[in-house]
Amino acid sequence: KATRENHAKFLLRCGADEIVYPEKQIAEKTAMRFSAEHIFDYIELNPEYSIVEAPIKQSWIGKTIEQLAFRQKYGVNILATKLNGKITPIIQADHLFHNDEHLIVFGSKKVVIDFLKQLD
Fold first, then answer.
1. How far apart are CA 29 and CA 42, in angstroms?
2. What is the average pLDDT across 110-119?
3. Quick check: 8 and 2 in contact, CB under 8 A?
C-alpha cells in the first residue's frame, strides 16, 4: 500500500510485486460515480476497460436485447442485469427489459462513457 510515488518506489526496491493506492482508487471511483447521474457502480479494470452499473432507458422497457440491437448500437457488452437487488448473469438476446432494471455492462472506457451519455 502506497500513498505517494516515492513510497511505491521504495516498496518495489524492497521486493513488492505490486503496489496499490487505495485512497487514490476510491477517489477515482467516487469521482466517476458522482460525475454522472446514471452510474450506480463503477469498476475500473485497467486504464482502458471498465464495468459500470447503470439504469435502463424507459424506452427499452418491454423490448429485448435483440430488438434493440444493443451491442451493435451501444458497443458495450451486457454482463448481467440487476432487478430488486438480484443479479442475473449471462443475459440472452431474448431478455425482456423490465422497469427499475439495471444493466451491468463492460467495455472500453470511451465506449462506456459514450453509452452513459446516451442514457439522458
1. 6
2. 89
3. yes
pLDDT digits (tens, 9 = 90+) for 2-50: 888 888 888 888 898 888 877 776 766 666 666 666 788 888 888 899 9
Q: Which residues of 1-33 are buried (b: 16+ CB within 10 A; e: fewer)?
A: ebeeeeebeebeeeeeeeeebeeeeeeebeebe
Please give the grid coordinates belonging to residue 21: 493506492
Burial class from Cβ neighbours inside 10 Å (0-12, 13-18, 19+) for residue 45 reads exposed
Nine cell digits for residue 85: 437487488
Q: Is pTM, for the whole model, over 0.85?
A: no
